[in-house]
Design a protein that fits this description.
Layout lengths: L1 E12 L2 E12 L3 E5 L6 H8 L7 E6 L2 E2 L5 H7 L1 E4 L11 H14 L7 H4 L3 H13 L15 H13 L5 E5 L7 H16 L3 E5 L3 H7 L2 E6 L2 E6 L1 H4 L3 H7 L6
Parallel strand pairs: 3-8, 3-9, 6-7, 7-8
Antiparallel strand pairs: 1-2, 1-4, 4-5, 9-10
Helix pairs in contact: 3-5, 3-6, 5-6
Bound molecules: adenosine-5'-diphosphate and magnesium ion.
Amino acid sequence: MSILTVRNVNKNFGGLAALSEVNLEVEEGSVHAIIGPNGAGKSTLLNCFVGRLDPDTGTVDFDGVSLLGLKPHQINQAGVSRVFQTPEIFGDLTLVENVMIPAFAKRDGAFKLSAWPAVRGEADIYQKAMDTLSDLGLAKYAQVTAGQLSRGDKRRLELAMCLVQEPKLLLLDEPTAGMARADTNRTIDLLKTIAGRGITMVVIEHDMHVVFSLADKISVLAQGTIIAEDLPEKIKGNPKVQEAYLGGAHL
Ligand code: ADP
Ligand code: MG
């Protein structure tokens, strides 16, 4: 069964067609990778799933409900969590505080930092945040300010900020970008564990080692169009995919 269904989505920026007639079906419980050269429209597509951008035309349905016109926090409360391409964390707050905020956002709707002093003492949310940090091996840094973390740990923190929301669908935009190989492998293992719990994932990723380690299915986006969609072992040999990647990333 498809948990995310995208039909005929178009998105233009001025004269540029960033997305052209994009169709996508993400199977519930699967890891679906979206790959493609820089500027292909991958982040734009993800932005259409979380209410940051509205498609010009087309439909996006999640769990049987249209996401179009919903605000980001409504989509989030419906069960969609997202890791951005650049870490979006609160550098001056501790890790546990960083994880508490999305937990409040899931429960209460859009979260304003001005509400923080009033809610920061809530024990059940604190415990939930601590449990999530433990789950990701970050408990020892719970009281450290997030700005001090290494890049790899920041990305793990972001995962904790998603997982505390117990999402049905997790969207990841280049989760291993800028990571050294050891951190990348740790992240792959973590994402495999998360997938093993039945959370559906859409992963945008440049690193083919990551893609082929994780994905059940791969869609290839080039110049705003899905040019191929297949099982990982079949994507490598697809001539259209090889052409799109010529001179760019390596398959
Ligand atoms: P990818 O994530 O695959 O690298 P993007 O979705 O970021 O690609 O970008 C797709 C195309 O749309 C690029 O040509 C980019 O410059 C353009 N683009 C993305 N966001 C905007 C925006 N907000 N305004 C204008 N152009 C944009
Ligand atoms: Mg991008």
